[in-house]
Amino acid sequence: MARPFRRYSAGARWYDLLSGERWVYRAGRVAGIGLMDLQAGDVVLDLGCGTGLNFPLVRAAVGETGHIVGVDRSAEMLAVAQGRVRRAGWPNVTLIEADAAELDVEEVRARVAGVTGRTDGVDAVLSTYALSVMRGSAREAWVRAVEVVRPEGALAVVDMQPPTGRWRIFSPLARLACAFGGADIQARPWHLVARDAATGSVREAVVRGGHIVAAVGRLPGEDDAPAACS
Ligand SMILES: C[S@@+](CC[C@H](N)C(=O)[O-])C[C@H]1O[C@@H](n2cnc3c(N)ncnc32)[C@H](O)[C@@H]1O
Prior knowledge:
By secondary structure, the protein is α/β, with parallel strands linked by helices. The chain has a single domain (2-216), classed as Vaccinia Virus protein VP39 (Rossmann fold, 3-Layer(aba) Sandwich). Helices cover 40% and strands 20% of the residues. It is built from ten helices and seven strands. The protein has a seven-stranded mixed sheet with strand order 3-2-1-4-5-7-6, sandwiched between helices. The radius of gyration is 17 Å and the shape is globular. The protein binds S-adenosylmethionine. S-adenosylmethionine (SAM) binds at residues 4-5, 8, 48-50, 53-54, 72-74, 77, 99-101, 128-130, 133-134, 137, 141, 181.
């Protein structure tokens, strides 16, 4: 089976069409981005942004004074994202080609400062359906991304698990879709939000028969006690 990186590079042109976006996965990004409580002018880091399917929803929330920073290691996926940005005429999107697990935090901070004037980092990090694909390097990628977020900024993960309850009959289909995309359906990477967010700040939404979980929390403020590690 192709490694996820090669799979996404080779299939970038078809991703939007074949990824089940309309019927299944859009619901997760709508739920997750809705929970983020984004404000006009916010700067949002989209980790493993792929073809930029989150961009219209994020852009609608942050407006023309906001900024999106998309990180992905596939040049081909980013090329599709760039086309989306160009067609929509959004000037405030920065795309960075990088392996998220090797993300240079200082470089990203410098890029953000260069395009937004913000030196305190981004207001939010969002990762949809990407950490489960990063597998063993997901934790490192997440840790680096969170370092770019300002205190009290939002942390959001939307990802997959086997359907639950009566929807379990669709488990074989969900497993097939995840295998096709190189995702580990058992990874449940939203636990990273709970690990890093301030106590009591995490909210979850579960959609599409339990197959998709969105978790959103807020980093502690500078004066708060650090969260317990797990
Ligand atoms: C299933 S796609 C999700 C794309 C997008 N977030 C979405 O919601 O449609 C997974 C994406 O993660 C990217 N990816 C996988 N491993 C990565 C890594 N180590 N660093 C950066 N991007 C990575 C892939 O190139 C691909 O674009």
